[in-house]
Amino acid sequence: MKNILITGGLGYVGGRLAKRMAEEFNITVSSRKATDKGLLGMHGNIALVNHQQLFTKEHFPQNIHTVIHLAALNEHDCVLHPSEAIRVNIDETRMILENSIASGAANFIYFSTAHVYGVPLAGHIHESTVTRPVHPYAITHCTAEDYVIAARDKKVINGIVVRLSNSFGPPVLPQVNRWTLLVNDLCKQAVVNHQLKLLSNGCQYRDFITLADVAEAVVHFTRLPLSKTGNGLFNLGSGASMRVMDMAQLISDEYEKIYGKVIPILLPDAAVATDEPVLDFDITKLCATGFLPANNFSSEINEMLQFCSAHFASNIPV
Fold this sequence. Notes:
By secondary structure, this protein is an alpha/beta fold. The chain has helices spanning 12-21, 37-41, 75-80, 82-103, 136-153, 182-193, 211-223, 244-259, 284-287, 297-311; strands at 3-7, 26-31, 46-50, 66-69, 107-113, 123-125, 158-164, 166-168, 196-197, 205-206, 208-210, 233-236, 242-243, 265-266, 279-281. Helix content is 38%, strand content 18%. The model has no long low-confidence stretch (mean pLDDT 94).
């Protein structure tokens, strides 16, 4: 059974990856914080190492087949602490990559972001599209990508860069603070406020992908032979963009199925519909390797609403 190390493996995406991959692999996760056994056990049968161990060759975990690197400052902290973003997102990635190589790891899967292509995301975007990051979060991820691809080109490790679109779904733990993400925020609004309040007119296009599909894609990457990974760059999304308003309507519909009550979708005052550029976040390259996202949005939204109901709602109308 392969040994997999997931940095940031108790975070939003990392927690779901750890829980799914623990079904098939020996999983070790890194965290900067101490975690009690009860919370750790909610992720399945996994081991925990202090994240600081990953910065020295002497303490880096041994016999690791694949490193999945997710540990990074989020987009909000990158704006508040740009120098820290450079240190964590770029330099710490470099150190972990170098120690992964020194330990003999075969694969290094780096989670980047679709926003390396710029803002707003619009038009046909594929892996050869020129990167134009404008946000500190995207800028630092774009630079970290270069280290991973450079190591791949030197043939010292199978470096894979995953440019992730808008993922959504319930975290393993409610303490994971990713409730500012659009779908997560709307699901929480639904069960707490019994309404969905958008900050825009809802006409913007986004490529949403379930965390279930993200996890399955990573399982796929761990099995993918080097010969099928091309230049190591992969877009990871649903491959079918939709408007923000359409996603809000899906959440409203799923809420009605569960609780039998229609909740309103509220727009800002004076909001009017606009013709926004369509987004085609191309995942053809990934699909050509044999992976197809299930895109079961209803199931993931249902699970998210149930999760929010269990952890945040005091009185769900029935």
